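Suppose you are handed a protein chain with no further information: no name, no annotation, nothing but its sequence. What can you learn? This example shows the usual starting point.
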Amino acid sequence: MRKQLGYNGLVVTDDLEMGAVSKYFTYEELGVRAVEAGADVLLVCHTLDSQEKMYNGILQAVKDGKISEKRIDESVKRILTHKLTSDIQLHVDPETAKNVVGKNK
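A reasonable first move is to predict its three-dimensional structure. Written in structure tokens, the prediction is:
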């Protein structure tokens, strides 16, 4: 995506625990493939076990030299740049959150 389309922005995956991809690859493989494809933020939304497998797969790929630390640093830079330059509220008042969460039940 980055090479073919020249896209330099932040890339966030859809939930990688969905059957569309998780039935074809292990979570360790999914994480590596997503990073290799240019993803910066990998969503694993349901189980800690799947999150740990994906993390460990990426970590092992870095240790083995399959993914460079430079590649990880590029994602970190994009994520931090987005956080620091976006017009998003970074801090939430606990009292406001307490009053809002659960109201739509």
